Amino acid sequence: MGRSARVVLITACLALALVRAAWAVDPTELPDPALQARYLALTHELRCMQCQNEALADSPVGLAADLRREVRDQLLAGKSDDQIRAWMTARYGDFILFRPRYSLRNAWLWGAPFALLLIGALVCWRVVRTRTTLLPGDHEPLEEDGQNG
Amino acid sequence: MTKFLLPLGLFVLLAVVLAIGIRHSPEKGIIASPLLGKPAPVFALPNLTDPAHEVRSADLRGHWYLFNVWGTWCGGCREEHQALLQVRRAAVVPIIGLDWKDDDAQALGWLTQLGNPYQSVATDHSGREAIEWGVYGAPETFLVNPQGIVVYKHVGALTPDTWSREILPRVSGRRAGSS
Amino acid sequence: MLPELGHFALILALLLAGLQAFFGIAGPALARDRWSGAVTSAVAGQAVMVATAVACLIACFVSEDFSVAYVAENSNSALPLFYRVSALWGAHEGSLLLWILLLAAWTVAVALGSGRLPPRFAARVLGVLGVVSFGFLLFTLATSSPFVRLDPPAPDGRDLNPILQDPGLAIHPPILYTGYVGFAVAFAFACAAMLEGRLDQNWARWTRPWTTAAWSFLTCGIALGSFWAYYELGWGGFWFWDPVENASFMPWLMGTALIHSLAVTDKRGLFKSWTLLLAILAFSLSLLGTFLVRSGVLVSVHSFAADPTRGIFILVFLIIMIGGALALYAWRAPLLRSSAGFELGARESFLLFNNVLLVIAAATVFAGTLAPLISDSLKLGTLSVGPPYFNPTFMLSMLPLLALLSVGIHANWKRGRLNDSQRTLLYTFIAAAVLGCGFVFGLYSHARVLTPIGATLALWIILSSLVDPIDRWRRGLTLPRAVLGMTVAHFGVALAVFALTTVQSFTIERDVALAPGGTATVGDYEFRFEGVKPVEGPNYEAVAGTLTVTRHGAPVAVMIPQKRNFWVQHQVTSETAIRMHRGNNLLLALGEDLGAGRWSVRIQIRPLVSLVWIAAFIMAMGGALAASDRRYRAARALATAPEGATAGQPG
After folding, report:
1. Which residues of C touch A68 (CB under 8 A)?
2. CA atoms within 13 A on the CB side of C586
3. Which residue of B1, B15, B19 is in closest CB contact with C334?
4. Are residues A83 and A35 in the same domain?
5. Running along chain C, 651 residues long, what does each successive block of 10 average in pLDDT?
6. Residue A85, domain extent
7. Tally of structural domains, chain A
């Protein structure tokens, strides 16, 4: 595959993104405040596919401007947020979403915090139980400045 | 006792994942196209060289074709131009060009100066068509089969190597034995 | 000449690091005290050699020696002197050298401060540090030498990345790395304990100040990076959950857990194997972060140029260091047992909860950061994770932690006696809730659900933290520095939470298109655009826009954001104009020329955002105070319990 071309592309993008100063100011204003709020939310939630660590709202590249215009046009046409996201992922894949989809494949990612909390609670319970039973037999004196710190 | 081996075990798993990640890393930044295996977008676009006739996907049904997204502003496109001319000379698969976000006069000048590898060139001033194909950086090249399904996508400059290893086998493999 | 000298110095440093590692580990293991004694000489030698190499590289930069490839890629004849020096750490090779320099500095500090440590233990600590130094020096010399020459020499340099030409970004890497690298000391202490086969309360006491000091530096480093991102990058964000940011945040979370766990081990001899594991993991995450940034496995705006060869090298290094330490852990940790006990409501309990929640937070960030990599490697498809994942999941573990802080601070060791504090808890909570809700609903007309919760939690922490110091003061008792440090640090945490709640809830942001004379009203402020004019700088040319800011008609400021074009690297940066007014941060950034004199402008009003970084520095100050407490330098007066756990004996 054209490694040099990809390097040029990525470098140009990284240069832009690293600098990140030529970010986009997007004065688009939709007539309806509710639509405007949705526009802002969506353009922050969708990834710029060229400068991959920026949101559509912030990326200065032409593709981002085009995609922002798409979002705007579709909102004005009455599409729902989900429809717009689906439209985007049909063309660019799941990678365009900053929020991982709630799907079975991503269950491990979204479930991880809860699973961890459960494990953490179990660990706490076991440790506390062990230590409270050891308490009556523990006659070691504490250091006298043993309060706090 | 085995609970003390757990951190080490988890770390080994992580190391494996990281090692696989390194092996894949030259391909990082290349996002798999969701279009693979799906029908190519239907299009009817202005023709750069022949304003009287549109470039239409309907006309291309029944043939293999390469869909190459390019622009005069794109350095990688300059690099791959020679390779595209070679593909043209081989006369196995026609190349349809999509001139993306470009100036028509400049594009015509470029083709006159460097040679025209394309059967026809469509222009996309708004960028809408490129979005339909999920393009995120030029140059990109798609291989579409006679049934209109996208079977391969190449991101970056096309090289003779890619042509002989990825595109030609798919085209000729299908050709032999089927219509 | 200079580059060759520097290169040679690095080779000598490698050899000396090898000797340091050898003497430090083999000496005590084989009971050869002469070898153990030789370690400090090796440390000194290595430090001198590393310093020499760094000095050579700086000299190359200052003298504009463009025959050195690294200088040619990161400097330019038009580059101001200050940035020619800071360009040292502007890219991969030089930043590695900085890593090595700071590791040498920490090693020297440990060697100087190890007077009260048992000699063999000290030798082991320095030996382990030598192993780490050796690994990094080898990596640098083998794959990333900054002294590579260009032949023929470049006529001029490609200039330092314009975004790095900023004082904030000049100090951010050194301070961040000081913290990052400093966790190697805790790691070395842990490995030394494992090599020795014993870990007691003295060990915890020795390890605490080093760990807290490193943590303080890391806190400052992260805060500096965030602050810089805010005022330099131009769109008002200061934390993006970018993979490289996460790479420094995870060690910070682990380090925080480690500090608290060390307190328990020091005080009661509990959680020994857990503390050991944390010490290993904190530094492991630092190493992992180094890997992620330089290997190309993750796409990030921060990452240095990716190179799979380097990635493989670092991965092997990681496997040896972390795998080795974890193997040692699996071998030695089962011997560490304690029969101490404590109540549910005791301080130990709360520190346990603290640790569990912090580790969960770190694990969540870890999962999110590596998810794209994991998903890709296991062929589960491309996954993308951003703030919409990190923000809610991080808060899931942080909110309980913040609430428990206010309760746990009253708990005593061993027997919590929280019953005695019931009234204090209730009163402080009510006061916090009243003040918090009063602030939120009194000053602002709208709020999100989490806004009063965040404000209340923050104020509750402040009030709770003040109870004990005030009580001591009233009873005429002294406040040990460690306790003062803890109070200050918790205070910092509370301020940070308060500031973050306010910023997240009440920021107003609008992008507008303005013609000269046009006005935009955002929040309570009016912004009138006066127009743009060209400006020249030392290595750039710029366009400066002027905006007059008023509040309800009364003049506030004249703000001048700029867009700078650096002619060498052909890059454009934006200099945002930031002004503080009544606790609000007004942020203006110039966008695009829309033609006919019209420009797009980004206007943001961020209340209390500066407090975020001030709070972080307060946290770091608290850490520094605590680390400097003399008590840590005195050995424990534990006469009773049998010292150290030899195999089979409960310790």
Report:
1. none
2. 24
3. B1
4. yes
5. 91 96 92 87 95 93 87 83 84 90 96 89 95 94 88 79 77 92 96 91 92 97 90 77 90 97 92 95 92 68 61 87 94 88 91 96 93 78 83 93 93 85 91 92 82 94 92 89 93 95 89 89 90 86 90 88 80 81 87 84 90 95 91 55 38 31
6. 9-96
7. 2
